[in-house]
Amino acid sequence: MDAEPISDALVRRLRTTSGLTADEEQAIRVLPVTVRSYGANQTIVRDGDRPTECCLIVAGFCLRAKTTSTGHRQILSIHIPGEIPDLQSLHLHELDHDLVSLTDCTLGFISHIALRELHRRWPNVAEIFWRDTLVDAAMFREWIVNVGQRPAPSRLAHIIVELRERLRIIGRVDPDGFEMPLTQEQIGEAMGITAVHANRVIRQLREDNVVELHRGRVTVLNEMKLMELADFDGRYLHQSPSL
Question: In whole angstroms, what is the distance from residue 192 CA to residue 187 CA?
Fold first, then answer.
């Protein structure tokens, strides 16, 4: 795969959120990348691993999760093309969670050595990646509030709106909707509820004419109802250099 498509979504996202310059963009595009394909539900790196490279999502969706000693899994975040979900492994040497492919994925692996050299040569790019990890932390905070304080229908609405806003930045939202390739069980794991409860919530949002979830896609039926239910304030996504 050519270098341009590998980094397209990453560059597009950083250009919008962090004001990436043309020279900085080129420095990112020439990073040495090893491309690998994964099927759905494959573990990319797991809790306890000590990775020597970070992975850029080129195509597909991934998730981060932790599993308790009793086998219960909590999905911590969903990741989309253009994101580097294990960027923290550059400085935190032992991974404390699992990174799993949600769908069939194309991933670009960048060695820690190459990333450190990029940061030494381009200090502003290092700051941009640092900002990216801070936004990641802001998203974690919002997910904690979502799971801990919102009722289940609002939790799902919030996850839907957040994913839509992140996909919009990379041009992956169309008038008919967008991808959210989660099963009912995975939706439950993201919301901290059972799959049976998740099924009831999905049905409720459809019957209330808010959203339709079908075959891994979301169709918004009523934008005003969705935003009111989600209680969504997108500042935490920091989708502008001024935020």
Answer: 8
What contacts 180, CB < 8 A, 6 or more positions away?
160, 163, 213, 216, 217, 218
pLDDT tens digit string along 97-154?
999 999 999 999 999 999 999 999 999 999 999 999 999 999 999 999 999 999 999 9
Contact 65, 121 (CB under 8 A): no
For residue 27, the surrounding DSSP H or E stretch is helix 22-29
Say if residues 28 and 42 touch (Cβ distance below 8 Å): no
> Is-contact 204 216, C-beta < 8 A?
no
CA-CA distances (angstroms) from residue 127 to 27, 86, 109? 14, 17, 21
Q: Are 33 and 130 in contact (CB under 8 A)?
A: no
Q: Classify 172 as helix, strand or coil.
A: coil
Given a contact cutoff of 8 angstroms between Cβ atoms, the answer to whether 75 and 63 are in contact is yes
State the burial class of residue 203 (Cβ atoms within 10 Å of its Cβ: 0-12, 13-18, 19+): exposed
Calculate mean pLDDT across residues 29-44: 97
Domains detected in the chain: 3-142 (2.60.120.10), 149-237 (2.60.120.10)
On the 0-12 / 13-18 / 19+ scale of CB atoms within 10 A, 30 is exposed
Give the burial class of 217: count Cβ atoms within 10 A of its Cβ; 0-12 exposed, 13-18 middle, 19 or more buried: middle
Contact by Cβ (8 Å): 202, 156: yes
Sheet of 62-67: strand order equals: 43-45, 98-101, 62-67, 73-79
